[in-house]
Design goal:
mainly alpha, globular
């Protein structure tokens, strides 16, 4: 009897140690995932450290939700670097694992990430399908932050389609919810979208009001993606207002921030914007250098909208040089794209 009790105690002890080790491992993985997420948006040079740690810890179990979280963050990194094909694959795999484990928050998060890649590829209807499914899922499972993201994306889709009244209704729903749940990044992002809405309608004072609110708020977040987006918005508006020095300043700040993030798509956008300012500053040769560089990046990362913009801007440079044949050729190329 004593011998049996000793054996049972040893078994219990062994199981307890295994469980403790497993728990400690999962806790470490969670810490590493948190570290990687912070690095992605603040200090990308440190990402490799966490990626290597996570790869070793998670290689043994590729169907766990922690592995799905790792895949999602890998996808974000690929997306920032302009490798949208690899990013989409990571998001899709992560999404399927979250679905298998019935993890609503992870499922919606990766679904929206998939939608964003599709949007950048110009696959607008497929993107909208992801955004609307994300909204329905978020409401059904009371996922307020993901609901904010979904509303934001749907509003952006309708803005791109020129349905400004419908777009604005989604933006206002999004802003109210983001403020209600104190989602600072959500507020910054949607205020920039509302600023863009007023800019499109020609209400520049109202647009500037929203952009400046975002600039003040975003500096407390240390999220370089939203910071660059806010600088970019201000650069665009000051360009419209013909304040070229301020416009160049903010676009250059956006470029520096996006370069720090190794955010290829954002770098391409900023190069295009700086080139457009240089055209109005009568520095067309410098502008062409920016447009050429932007096009190279856009083509490399298969950013369709960016390619169209770069080629169109090259046409404007030729127009300024009074080379009508080259200008028309570029405009036709942009139209085909």
């Amino acid at each position: 009897m004593l011998r049996l009790q000793i054996i049972l105690l040893l078994v219990f002890y062994s199981v307890s140690i295994c469980c403790t080790k497993h728990l400690n491992t999962r806790n470490k993985v969670v810490d590493y995932l948190t570290g990687l997420e912070v690095c992605l948006f603040n200090n990308p040079d440190s990402c490799d450290y966490y990626l290597n740690l996570l790869h070793r810890k998670l290689a043994v179990n590729e169907n766990d939700t922690l592995y799905a979280a790792y895949l999602n963050l890998e996808g974000i990194r690929f997306s920032l670097n302009g490798n949208n094909i690899a990013a989409f694959e990571k998001f899709e795999k992560s999404n399927s694992i979250y679905k298998m484990y019935t993890n609503p928050n992870g499922y919606v998060r990766t679904l929206l990430n998939k939608g964003e890649v599709l949007y950048n590829w110009g696959e607008y209807q497929k993107a909208l399908d992801c955004f609307k499914e994300g909204l329905q899922f978020s409401i059904a499972h009371d996922l307020k932050k993901q609901e904010v993201r979904s509303l934001n994306y749907i509003g952006k889709y309708y803005h791109s389609k020129g349905e400004f009244e419908l777009s604005f209704s989604y933006y206002m729903q999004c802003l109210l919810l983001a403020q209600q749940i104190k989602d600072t990044l959500g507020v910054v992002s949607i205020q920039n979208k509302i600023g863009k809405h007023y800019e499109t309608l020609g209400n520049y004072p109202k647009s500037l009001e929203y952009y400046l609110l975002s600039e003040k708020l975003v500096r407390h977040t240390q999220n370089y993606i939203e910071m660059a987006s806010t600088f970019n918005s201000l650069g665009n508006l000051y360009h419209i207002l013909k304040d070229y020095s301020k416009s160049f300043h903010f676009h250059n700040m956006a470029l520096e921030t996006r370069s720090h993030m190794n955010y290829s798509e954002g770098v391409a956008k900023s190069l295009n914007n700086l080139g457009e300012v240089l055209i109005d500053m009568e520095k067309v040769d410098s502008a062409m250098m920016y447009f050429n560089h932007s096009y190279e990046i856009c083509e490399d990362i298969e950013y369709a909208k960016g390619c169209v913009k770069s080629v169109h801007n090259q046409g404007i440079v030729y127009q300024k040089r009074l080379d009508d044949a080259q200008a028309i050729a570029k405009f036709k190329e942009a139209l085909l794209l």
